[in-house]
Amino acid sequence: MLEEILRQVQAGNLSVSEAKENLATYENLGFAKVDHHRKNRQGFPEVVYGEGKTKEQIICIIQAIRSKGQNVLVTRISKEKANYVLREYPEFSYNETAQILFWKKKTSKNDSYQGYIAIVCAGTSDLRVAEEAAVTAEALGSEVRRFYDVGVAGIHRLFDNIEQIQQATVSVVVAGMEGALPSVVGGLVSHPVIAVPTSVGYGANFNGLSALLTMLNSCASGISVVNIDNGFGAAYNAVLIDHLVKGDKSE
Amino acid sequence: MLEEILRQVQAGNLSVSEAKENLATYENLGFAKVDHHRKNRQGFPEVVYGEGKTKEQIICIIQAIRSKGQNVLVTRISKEKANYVLREYPEFSYNETAQILFWKKKTSKNDSYQGYIAIVCAGTSDLRVAEEAAVTAEALGSEVRRFYDVGVAGIHRLFDNIEQIQQATVSVVVAGMEGALPSVVGGLVSHPVIAVPTSVGYGANFNGLSALLTMLNSCASGISVVNIDNGFGAAYNAVLIDHLVKGDKSE
Amino acid sequence: MLEEILRQVQAGNLSVSEAKENLATYENLGFAKVDHHRKNRQGFPEVVYGEGKTKEQIICIIQAIRSKGQNVLVTRISKEKANYVLREYPEFSYNETAQILFWKKKTSKNDSYQGYIAIVCAGTSDLRVAEEAAVTAEALGSEVRRFYDVGVAGIHRLFDNIEQIQQATVSVVVAGMEGALPSVVGGLVSHPVIAVPTSVGYGANFNGLSALLTMLNSCASGISVVNIDNGFGAAYNAVLIDHLVKGDKSE
Amino acid sequence: MLEEILRQVQAGNLSVSEAKENLATYENLGFAKVDHHRKNRQGFPEVVYGEGKTKEQIICIIQAIRSKGQNVLVTRISKEKANYVLREYPEFSYNETAQILFWKKKTSKNDSYQGYIAIVCAGTSDLRVAEEAAVTAEALGSEVRRFYDVGVAGIHRLFDNIEQIQQATVSVVVAGMEGALPSVVGGLVSHPVIAVPTSVGYGANFNGLSALLTMLNSCASGISVVNIDNGFGAAYNAVLIDHLVKGDKSE
Amino acid sequence: MLEEILRQVQAGNLSVSEAKENLATYENLGFAKVDHHRKNRQGFPEVVYGEGKTKEQIICIIQAIRSKGQNVLVTRISKEKANYVLREYPEFSYNETAQILFWKKKTSKNDSYQGYIAIVCAGTSDLRVAEEAAVTAEALGSEVRRFYDVGVAGIHRLFDNIEQIQQATVSVVVAGMEGALPSVVGGLVSHPVIAVPTSVGYGANFNGLSALLTMLNSCASGISVVNIDNGFGAAYNAVLIDHLVKGDKSE
Amino acid sequence: MLEEILRQVQAGNLSVSEAKENLATYENLGFAKVDHHRKNRQGFPEVVYGEGKTKEQIICIIQAIRSKGQNVLVTRISKEKANYVLREYPEFSYNETAQILFWKKKTSKNDSYQGYIAIVCAGTSDLRVAEEAAVTAEALGSEVRRFYDVGVAGIHRLFDNIEQIQQATVSVVVAGMEGALPSVVGGLVSHPVIAVPTSVGYGANFNGLSALLTMLNSCASGISVVNIDNGFGAAYNAVLIDHLVKGDKSE
Amino acid sequence: MLEEILRQVQAGNLSVSEAKENLATYENLGFAKVDHHRKNRQGFPEVVYGEGKTKEQIICIIQAIRSKGQNVLVTRISKEKANYVLREYPEFSYNETAQILFWKKKTSKNDSYQGYIAIVCAGTSDLRVAEEAAVTAEALGSEVRRFYDVGVAGIHRLFDNIEQIQQATVSVVVAGMEGALPSVVGGLVSHPVIAVPTSVGYGANFNGLSALLTMLNSCASGISVVNIDNGFGAAYNAVLIDHLVKGDKSE
Amino acid sequence: MLEEILRQVQAGNLSVSEAKENLATYENLGFAKVDHHRKNRQGFPEVVYGEGKTKEQIICIIQAIRSKGQNVLVTRISKEKANYVLREYPEFSYNETAQILFWKKKTSKNDSYQGYIAIVCAGTSDLRVAEEAAVTAEALGSEVRRFYDVGVAGIHRLFDNIEQIQQATVSVVVAGMEGALPSVVGGLVSHPVIAVPTSVGYGANFNGLSALLTMLNSCASGISVVNIDNGFGAAYNAVLIDHLVKGDKSE
Prior knowledge:
By secondary structure, chain A is of the alpha/beta class. Chain A has helices at 2-10, 16-42, 55-67, 79-88, 127-139, 156-159, 162-166, 181-186, 209-216, 231-246; strands spanning 47-49, 72-75, 93-95, 100-103, 117-121, 144-148, 170-175, 193-197, 223-225.
């Protein structure tokens, strides 16, 4: 691209100031291009982290995104703030458990692709994080199947579902307390497992540290870990993998 | 017992100094009796922790124990120190993996009792701790069955053995790395599980902290935990339970 | 059981689809059997952890349990939620200190068995945890004796009660602050001691970490540890041991 | 598969004992199948962790693997142990920096697939871990490109290489000290980034804890983390993703 | 100074009691002199830390400072307390984001000096700390330029501003989450960087510990670190350096 | 004293330079006086910490101390370094367990004072620290009585000695593992207890952290704590108290 | 005492049941005697820790103590609870900063003794803890002098008071933030220093951990440490020392 | 610069490929320029961290640096490796305590500038780190004055030197154990203080964590902190400040 611009300057087709602007754009484009890649492929230009932002700030960012005709995804947004936004944008969806607000353009489905992301969750108290992952993945355009309350203390519940989990493209495994579920799932599937420790527990759980360490030390291969309670981050990773497999890496 | 002594003093059958000695003995007996209970029931008057003791000190303590005609159990004793003792006491047994030296009087078996302690171990690197548990339990007079290398990363290995583990009186479950095995076993058996975290691992394992926290936070009921690498302590607990069930709490 | 099913298929007594269902059941039964064992022996099919559940969810789970005619045990349930349940099920009992709600079928007592669980507690501020243990054990069908406020700072209080503690089948020892009591009790009794650190304390207590480490490092043998404030877990362990000794492992 | 076996029993084509063995196999196959999946797709039946194993044990495991005609991969194996193995198996390759020993069957390349894994590494002292990742990925059959010594303290070195990194299927980013590199790379690429903290550093680095926390808290999306120094684990994850994209998920 | 006083005593120009007072003053002056240095050079005799002080106490301290005709700077003061003070001193300024209240005498500017402090900030949630730094530096008499929301996850935003940052005398770099920004800035500038970790983040962030460790372990040279959220402290350091360069070290 | 010097300057009895030197001396004396107090009362001008010093450095410091005719106390000095010093100063004493080298002038005993310091020690592995305390106290001129191997796991051993411990002026209580002994002693005596955690233990002991936290959280009153393994520091404290009681605070 | 009782039984002056009761009393007296010692010497039979107790419980304990005609000391009691007690016992004193409620019998002063406890405090935010120490010491009958706001950041304030501090019998030194004050005081005085870390600070202070570690690692001799914010505990220690010196150890 | 290149392309004075190379260089120069700034001003193009590098690697890097005629600075290099280098480059200097090897071109001194860096050090065991700082600063061209062994436990040693320290441009204050010295110095000087915690200490020092936290929490203003034992980093910061003041920021 640099060469092209230079040639046009040489040929007199581009003035110095135009070239300068283009190259500046190029410089910015160098990094903004990445953002465009992301937007084109994933359907979302930027994800808004709602925690610590006022409802006015959130509306303001949403307007900027909508003005470019793009999809919207706001995570960690309370019901009260979401309702405020919904009055303005009644076409948006809000999932209260996941604390996610989003709006997505209708897209034609890639019919041939059958892949899905398995969201596997140990206990009912980990649901909030699991739903943050599930709704994020759906909002970012992936197919999701939920396998909830299949923790290791009653491992037969996992085995009743293991074949469906094995056929997923990638699994997001959410667990609090001792966080042992990803190790067991990781030993039973042959696709990547993204483990999400939750802060569910008490005492020597130390707000999720226990589950985090468990997952980092997993003796099963194929497991990587995100921050405590970071359902969004795990889903984002899973969606990147799902999109790679779907094959729309076609730019 | 106090009343009896006082009555004998009243009756003139016991002099004041004799009574004083008896009562002193009583006081000491009050606590020493516990020691006798322990010795009678478990067959070992005192367990010697070999680490940090010289071979001369160990010999010296063994002589004191033997002079009372009692059984001997030395834990965490290196091969070199053990060989030094074995030259003096060739009838002793030494288990190098477990680092345990012991000698036991022949005892008639309680034939009717079929109970055993299951020693369950996640990986081959946890063997040292598992063997410390197994040999300790055997030296203290319990039946032991070993279920090694049945970690959660290949959980079918556990399921191939689960029925035998379920029939044990009590399980000692040894695991390093993420330490998830006790949670899985705890969900499959209906007897007490004593969990032993090991220091096997690296990085965010923090010398066994990861496995320790996992076990303390287990969402399965019926699990209690001992110190990192404390195979001896877990076995001691298991033997106490095994003896209670065996029914020789008959003093 | 597998062989039997196959023989019936061979003999034409069982259709393929029936056999398939049976074997599926078998697979599930393989793990669900464990649950049945547990229910039969302990009188409770499942313990409900009340924290983080709404009163509606709790009622819902209770209905499911009651519909199978089984006993009910809900831990960590606030007075307000408990009152909500009690309006529906006035025959239930609620213990406010222990924060436990339960209902138990009348059962004929095993008359010959004299064993009991000693619940030993260091200070009055540890009472909540001690009562969680005591009420859990009682609800699960064990005899309990309470020895409260016998902490090491005034150790004569412990000695006034030590003989009764020594005669228990198993002790649950609850302590906050420095958590030294289990070590002292462990040195005086010859049965298993289950130690419960509490989060009582301030400053360098670090919400129970101090007591937890103390108990894990105890130089007395026969001590195992559960999570901070986990009175329920300690009692559950103690009841498993008590039931083993009681001898109703008769299936 | 279960139905098929039952039908054959019904039809008399399979005796009860044959069916029993098959179903046992089935049960095992249920989990072993996973292993087969893995082996077929990845070309390695099992990875041997060399640390803590004697050279005799390693030879013994290798013989078992070779007897099934399969590829071999041994990680964390010292030069001295590797030389011992190489005398027996001179056709094996040993990479001293990566401490990896491996042998791979010649395989026809999937010509149409151009994807590769970018191994990005902050400093020269992180090389050992980066090479463990690179050699693992190559041994498991993926194409690898190395981008070493591109740490954030001289960020122009990264920018000189960023386009090539952006075109990879997945990146493994290795960094010690403050571990900031994955955040920067994560903000510049649109594929999954697997971050590997290393134990390189001193003082408040706490043996890699600093880099680990940095990576878990990354404000860039699309990053997941493995244990400190776990180059193998990161590569294994990357290879799983690479294989998914390559499309040989065709069983 | 001591010699001078002694000579005056010798010469009879100073009585013993006067000399004693002077020397006492000297002793105090020895340390108070430092305070005077500070006041003269920086324009503020003492900074008031508002947190934990009542509004009455703050008014009281302000009166003492004002009675000496000096500038006032109160940090970490809530809007409510500030309003209370502003009713009494309407000429004061309050910055709500920075939570700083101050009053400064008009001073003639050092015209020839063009230096400024760059306040660089990773994300919008770190703003409170960045503003505490910026307003402190301004109140203490330095020129400030703000470069906000230039975190490493979208590093092109930093590069758009890097030349202006490079021309500063000293940079204060504020970042939460993984805290990687100071390392990147440190590698691009040739002046001192004072890094401020913030407590912004969740989970394995541990209230700013993650960012703190990152900054302490930075592989870029020229970075020093202050306490978590200590915007004031960083600014104070930067102002000391700015004043040194400005050259008014002329006493 | 300042006034006196000034008057002599005024009177011409002291030149300015003499006064200046005196006042400098005064200033130094102001702090050095403390040192003199210490030396006079405690019999040792300065304690030498031997760890990390070469034998030549140690000899050099000893010569400086001896040249002023004062007593010598070197702690944490290995046998090999001590022997080097003993060749030069054969009149010195070396205690190998305590790793202390010292020399003391003959002093007339304070006959009327019967007080002593009780050095109480939990286990034989804590001996090194207990002896560091005991020998330090003796070298600093206090009477010491040793009560070793009286840990809480066999608490009757403590009770056999408690009366003698109760009659001490102050107790130094040394314990590793869970460090519970000071709490028990503190509840039984009415004098100050100085607790010394040792690094004896393994696993969740974390090199003495467990015992340290236990002692800081003791529910018994009258206990203060020194650093892990700091037998010297505890003894120094005890000697200060012992000297206060002895009444030779007579300067 | 035991001998005396036995002789009286022998002589028929004491019945068996009387002797038994006496010896039981003796046994209890063995430990309760300690309590009596404490009460007689210190003027308080038991200190009530008010935190976590209801006002009704506090009244109840106070009544028990008053019924024996003894002094009362309640620590960590809120103004609201204290007012409740004061309505019943208007003769009690309440110190709101210290959060202490107490009542003391008039006692004749030991006129000849001039000793006092120095309560030294770094900053105004540490006042609550310093006052807890000061009021406790006064309530337990010691003379106290307060030296507040003399922290190391303006060390001349300390030097203005150092002589008075040096003349104390014992110092309690209270400091938050970095907790450096005890080290400086410890280097300037020749009596025992009891250091109290406070939880005052933020960020890397970790609720007082920073100050606690500083004090445990002090390079000055003669310093021992109590728990974070434990002003009561430090004062209790200081009073024990003060009483020893006062010489009323005369029972 | 970009505009200039474009104009020359337009004017035909620069071919497209030349322009491309220049702009590539420009891009690189954009960041490499920083490096040049650094080199020109500080006299060292790059500092070599010797730890973990072989002597051959070090020689190799030195050759590259020397080939550009630049100064050389190698930190953390052992005597043995240094001797290897010195055989090749006998004109280099090696400081064994500091473990630094360097070579510097003769430079004309900036005569008018009188500023110096004060290296202040608490104890003799912190010398290694203090010397790393001192020698680094000298090698980078700054004047240095050493104030060693002036720790807070004998604070008069600090006061004897405080005036000289006060007149420095910037202070580097090195301390281990409790690390209190920077707080005291920070309260006495009006220039920036760069604090260096060292790993000197034992027990609750946790390898320098204690001193690190102390310094981060300092209540004195004007203190910033570097990593544990990072004498080099502190000196580098100090030199940046010193150079700013010296005024040779003249490019």
